[in-house]
Amino acid sequence: MSKAFKLIEVVGTSSESYAVAINAAVEQARKSISGLGWFEVTDLRGAILEKGLEYQATVKIGFRLRDE
Amino acid sequence: MSKAFKLIEVVGTSSESYAVAINAAVEQARKSISGLGWFEVTDLRGAILEKGLEYQATVKIGFRLRDE
Amino acid sequence: MSKAFKLIEVVGTSSESYAVAINAAVEQARKSISGLGWFEVTDLRGAILEKGLEYQATVKIGFRLRDE
Amino acid sequence: MSKAFKLIEVVGTSSESYAVAINAAVEQARKSISGLGWFEVTDLRGAILEKGLEYQATVKIGFRLRDE
Amino acid sequence: MSKAFKLIEVVGTSSESYAVAINAAVEQARKSISGLGWFEVTDLRGAILEKGLEYQATVKIGFRLRDE
Amino acid sequence: MSKAFKLIEVVGTSSESYAVAINAAVEQARKSISGLGWFEVTDLRGAILEKGLEYQATVKIGFRLRDE
Amino acid sequence: MSKAFKLIEVVGTSSESYAVAINAAVEQARKSISGLGWFEVTDLRGAILEKGLEYQATVKIGFRLRDE
Amino acid sequence: MSKAFKLIEVVGTSSESYAVAINAAVEQARKSISGLGWFEVTDLRGAILEKGLEYQATVKIGFRLRDE
Amino acid sequence: MSKAFKLIEVVGTSSESYAVAINAAVEQARKSISGLGWFEVTDLRGAILEKGLEYQATVKIGFRLRDE
Amino acid sequence: MSKAFKLIEVVGTSSESYAVAINAAVEQARKSISGLGWFEVTDLRGAILEKGLEYQATVKIGFRLRDE
Amino acid sequence: MSKAFKLIEVVGTSSESYAVAINAAVEQARKSISGLGWFEVTDLRGAILEKGLEYQATVKIGFRLRDE
Amino acid sequence: MSKAFKLIEVVGTSSESYAVAINAAVEQARKSISGLGWFEVTDLRGAILEKGLEYQATVKIGFRLRDE
Fold first, then answer.
1. How far apart are CA I66 and CA E48, in angstroms?
2. J and F make contact (3+ CB pairs below 8 Å)
3. How far is I20 from I18, CA to CA, in rounded Å?
4. Tens-digit pLDDT profile for residues D15-62
5. Where is pLDDT greater, at G66 or H6?
C-alpha cells in the first residue's frame, strides 16, 4: 500500500527568535490542516527595525493526504 | 504578535516577454487570493515555436494568512 | 493570450520502487485536480525497515489554471 | 517507443534587453539545427560599457535527435 | 601524458521507467559516438498523460576525445 | 531528552537498476551497523559498458547513536 | 603581471521592468566607482502593489582595483 | 522613480545562540551605516571550545543607497 | 608541515530549540572523538508532534587527525 | 548587432596538477575549434593511483559562433 | 563578548596559476585592510589567450571589524 | 554482482598549494584505509597568515567496502 503527503510552504515571523517564528508557521497551518507530520527550514531572513529585528523563517510543512 | 504568510508557486507564460509572463502569473493569483505581498522568480524557461518564443516564468508568490 | 499554471509539491511512497512512489503522488493529485501537465522529481529519500525499504519521492506537479 | 533529445548551451548577447539576447541565442541555433523544442535560462550576466550595458543570456536549448 | 573527455547532455524518454529512459539516452549517443565512458543523471522530469506517465531523464554522458 | 544520529555516505552499484544499487548500499551498511533509520539519494551516476550500464547510486544513510 | 577586481552586490528597483532595475543598480554604482567592468544577476524578486509590480534585481558588479 | 540598495556580508559571533550572533552582526553594521532594511542568513557555522560552542552566523544586510 | 582533519555528519534533536539540538550533536561526538574543532549546520528540519515540535539539526563536525 | 557564443564541457586530466589538466582540456578544444574565449571550472575530481593522483578538471569552454 | 567580521569578494588574476591569482586577490586586500583572517574560493574561471590562459579566482575574504 | 563503496570527507592543509593540501588529505586516508579509488573536491578555503596563506582543501574520498 502506498501513502501520499503534500508539502506547503509557510513563512512565520517573530520579534523574539526563529524558534518562535517557526512555531508561528506550524501553528497557523495546524488551524486548517490535520495530519501535519514534519517540516524543513528553507530560508532564514528578517527585517531590521528601529529597535531590534523581525525574524522570518520559511518552512516547508508535510502532511498526509487521506482518501475519502 | 507574530504574522504568517503562505508561498505558492505559479508559472505564467507569454509570447512577448518574461515581464508579461510574470504579470500573468501574479494577476492569475490575484483573482482568487487577497493580500498578495511579494514574489521571487525561481525558473525561466520557454518553448521554441515555428515563429518566435513562448516565455515561461515560474514565480513564488507570498501572501498573508489571516486569522478569522 | 497568456496561460498560467500552478505547481504543487507531493510526496509519494512505495515499498516497491521510486516509479511506483512517483505514480502514487501523481494519482493522488489526479483525484482532486484536473489538467495535470508535468512533474519534476525534487527529492529521493526513504525509510529503512526491518525488511526492505520504503521509497519516498517528492515531485512538483504542474497543472493549468483555468479562468471561470 | 522512446525518444531522445540533445541539450546545447548557447550565450546570446544584446545591447537592448535579455529578451533580444535570448532570441539571438535561439536564432543562431536555428540556423544549423532543426527540431528545436525548448530552452532554459541558466545564467544572466553582462558587460558594463562606457554607455549602457551589453546583456548576456546563457540558455540551454533542447532539440529532438532523429534516427536516420 | 594527459587525456581529455567531452561531456554532452542528452534527454531520454520512456513510458515505462527512468531506467529505460536513461538507456534510450545512452543508446542514442552510442549510434554516433565511440568511446562512451560514464554518465551522470542531472534532471528527472516527466509528462502526465491521459493514462500513465512519460519519464524524462537528463543525463550528461562523457566520452574520450582521441587525437588523430 | 535528546537523541543523536550519524549520517554516512555509501555508493551502491548494480547492472540492473538504481533500485538494486540503493539496496546494495543499504544492505552493505546493515552488515556492520544496527539502528539504520533512513536514507537520502545524493547522486545518480553510472558507467557505460560494452553492453548495458552499471548504475551507481550515492546514498546518505542515517542511524541512531546509542549511549553505552 | 596580475590584476585584481572587487565585486559588490547592489539591488536595483523599477516599476517598469528588470532591465530598468538592473540599469538603476549599475548607474547607482557608477556615481561613486570608476572602472566598472561586468555584472551578474543573482536574484530576481519583486513587490506586489495595489496596481502593478515593483521589480527588484540583485546584481553583483565587478570593477578593477587600481594601485595608487 | 527607481531606488537602489547595497548588500554587505557580515559574520556575527556569540557564545550563547545564533540569535545573539545575528544581532551582533546587525548592530555592528548599524554603527556606521544608516538606512538598514533587511537581512538574509547565508551560513551557520561555529567553533567547538573546551566548554560549549561559539556560534557564527553569516548574514547579508541590505541598506538603501541615497543620492546626495 | 601539513595537517589533516576529518568531517563527520551528525543529527542532533531537541524538543526545545535548534541550539540544544546542535549541542546534542556535538556532545555526542565529544564522547568518542577528541580534537573537535568546528561545525557547519547543513540542514534544519523537524517533526510536528501532538504538542510542540522536535527540532532536528544536521551538523558537519571537523576534528584533527593525528599521526600515531 | 548581437553576437552568439557556444559553451562545451570538456574534462582534462593530468598526473601533475589541476593547472595542467585545465590546459589539456583547453588545448584539446583548440585543435578543432577557433575563436575560444573563456572557461569556467565546474568540477574538480580525481583518481587515486597506487602512487600519486590523477587530477580531473571539468571546464566549460565558450567560443564565438560566426555567421558564414 | 561577541565579535563581528566582514566578508568582501575579490577577483585575482594570473597567467601562471590559480595559486598566484588567489595570492593577488589577498595581497590587494591587505594593502587597505588590516585584520584579514580567512578566505573561501567561490569561483574559478579564466580567459583563453592566443598563447596560454589567464586564471581568474574569485575569493571571499573575511576580516575582523573593530570597535573604535 | 553488486559492489559498494564508502565516501569519507577529509580536509588537507598546506602552506604551498591546493595540490599539496589534497595530497595530504589522501595520504592521511591511505594510512588506515585500503582500496581508495577516487576523490571529489568539495570546498576550497584557507587562512590568511602574517606571511602567505594556508590552503585548506576539503575532499570526499571513495573506497571499496569488502565482504569478509
1. 55
2. no
3. 5
4. 999 989 999 999 999 999 999 999 999 999 999 999 999 999 999 999
5. H6
List phi, psi (to 5°) of I17.
-165, 170
Chosen from J14, J42, J44 to mutate, greatest number of chain L CBs within 10 A:
J44
Q: Which residue of D has its CA nearest to E54?
A: D2
Indicate the helix (H) or strand (E) that contains J55. Answer: strand J53-65
Model confidence pLDDT, tens digit, residues G48-68: 999 999 999 999 999 999 864
Shortest distance, CA J49 to any CA of chain D (angstroms):
34
Gyration radius (Cα) of chain E, Å: 14
- C/J Cβ contact: 3+ pairs below 8 Å: no
Q: State the cell numbers at J17.
A: 596538477
Query: For C21, phi and psi rounded to 5 degrees?
Result: -65, -45
Partners of residue I37 in chain H, C-beta under 8 Å? 47-48
* Half-sphere exposure at residue I37, Cβ-oriented, CA atoms within 13 angstroms: 11
Q: Nearest-CA neighbor of D8 among E31, E42, J8?
A: J8
CB-based contacts of C50, cutoff 8 Å, min separation 6: none
Please say whether the dihedral angle defined by the alpha carbons of residues E46, E48, E49 and E53, taken in this order, is positive or negative.
positive
The residue among K11, K48, K53 with the most chain J CBs within 10 A of its CB, best to mutate, is: K48
Instruction: Select from E51, E59, E67 the least CA-distant residue to E7.
Output: E59
Cβ proximity of A22 and A14 under 8 Å: no
Cα–Cα–Cα angle for C37, C43, C44, rounded to 5 degrees = 110
Contacts of residue G19, defined as CB under 8 A and 6 or more positions apart, other chains included, come to D17, D18, D55
State the residue for C-alpha cell 513562448.
B54
pLDDT at B11 over 70: yes
How far is Cα of residue A35 from the mean position of the Cα atoms in its chain?
14
Contacts H61 to A, Cβ<8 Å: 48
| Domains along the sequence of chain A with CATH | 4-65 (3.30.1660.10)
Q: Which of C5, C60, C67 sits opposite B10 (nearest CB)?
A: C5
DSSP state, residue L67: -
